[in-house]
Amino acid sequence: MLKTLKNQLKNVDFVLYKRKMYILMEISRNNHYVPIWYQKRFMLKEQTSYFCLDKKSGYCFIPGRSCVKKEEILHKGPSCFFCQKDLYTTRSLFTGEENDEIEKYLFGKIDIEGRLAFEALMSEDWMSEANERYSHLFEYIDAQLLRTPRGIFWIKKSSNAKSQNELMLYMQAIRLAHCVTWIESAKEIVSAEKSETKFIVSDNPVALYNPKYHPNRDWHQYERADGIPIFHKGTRTLFPIDMNHCLILYNPEYTQNPTLKIALENRTNSRLYDNIIHRTDDINKTKLLSEKEVLQINLLLKNNAERYISASREEWLYPERIVNPSWISFNKLLLPKYPRFPGEMYTFGKDGKLSYTQDGFGRKPSNLAEWEEKAKEAQRIHENIEKALENERKRKKSEM
Asked: What's this model's pTM, rounded to 2 decimal places?
């Protein structure tokens, strides 16, 4: 699987540099904002179609006929769901012709790299496999947040874009804006393998939870530039990886004090972009959810959906028939099994001197005095490490 995807990625790179190839000139107008390959991760192996629920189903008027009820549940293949005509279509500035460069060249590469990252993350040797794909995982999640109709709507409101071309340019300009926040988060992949019910997928796969912010009641906040509260202390990000696994990203600061009082405060050192050092082996994958907990997360995913949700089983589309917790009660459910707070990080050069440092919030020394203080502290740490290694060598030598 990984080999096949790597070959596809090479083909995409080829496309990026050989864009005049006529074989690629066919325009794609039906843009999938939730990729087909991602939808298939929520289908059973033998399935070629699955169930999709329209949350806004109701009655509609057809000329020449009376009011009829719109179909609430569809049972079709993933190519029929989570798509919209010309969502990313732009026009050439020179000829005025429509093109699908955003769909083909931007999201095409992001999708393949994201898929590779998922496969690596869920492999048995994930700590080594996911190392080189780690940043691609968060790049994909960031793109998935922005590429949906809700994300495009938010970008349009924030940018006041006057045209589709301008809107797509602005979308590309703010790409990766959330990656630093997510990479610095406490990360956990929860499992539904012991549950009869599995995770669902929605038209907004990147779900946000904050106990002080309800996605339905507070929808108007999406019309403001600060509407998506990713940078608030109490906000968690949920992203189902497949029908058995869901990635949850927590603010480490909030896991130490998960109170409603600070849920809407901004994270310490909240920022959009930065160069940081981070670990790629700090994802906890040991938390098994009960049937009730899976249903509760599905209910949260359903609440976060704008209109559509899909699942392999029709009954999974209605978690509220079995569980109906209050919105605030999710605050206790969405806490990591092993809360952690990142400490200070140091890197040393070959000469043993400090070359880089940051604290648990990603803050770096802001002046020479702070750097010199950190250098002294780092030197002490380096000397202690050398002493410990020397003592270990002596111990092993004495045992021979």
From this structure: 0.84
